[in-house]
Amino acid sequence: MKLYKAMIIVLLCSQNLISQENRFGLGVVLGDPTGLSAQLRLNNTNAIDGALAWSATGLHIHSDYLWNNDNFFANRNQNLDLYYGIGGRLISLSSDAYKNQTSIAVRAPIGINYKIRNTQVQIFAEIALNFSFAPRSDTDLDAGIGLRFYF
Q: Could you give the number of structural domains in the chain?
């Protein structure tokens, strides 16, 4: 009986430690682009995110360095925070005009994260302004909503 109590205490304590270490999230993003999404929390303020996805123009890969502003919605909801960042994007263009070329862009995302209480699930919505500089100069927007599970 003492062994079972000790095992339960160890399991409860280890679950608490594990839940504090849930810094890596993996999930999906729907929109333009649509695909897999990941985020690594570096600390309470900073994170690195990325996606491997598809858009109307082709295979889409991006990664961003993010700053979280948890105090932006502090008076309204503790589980909702604003984030913004800077990053890069590569798209393997599939249109006839740019066949077999890669678009390279600087990305400036802004979005919101909502962590569902008592779970390791996060819902997010994001819009990103992209400044393409190869194979031609252009600006466009990426937008999506998604869900990540942290472990």
A: 1
Site of tokens 């729907």: 30
Q: Which of 35, 19, 39 is nearest to 111 (CA)?
A: 39
What is the pTM assigned to this prediction? 0.80
User: Taking Cα atoms as reference points, which of 128, 122, 137 lies closest to residue 33?
Assistant: 128
Closest CA to 51 of 93, 87, 98: 87
Task: Specify which residues 108 forms β-bridges with.
Answer: 129
Query: Does residue 31 have a pLDDT over 70?
Result: yes
Task: Give the DSSP letter string of 70-83.
Answer: TTTTTTT-TTEEEE
Range of the domain at 116: 23-150
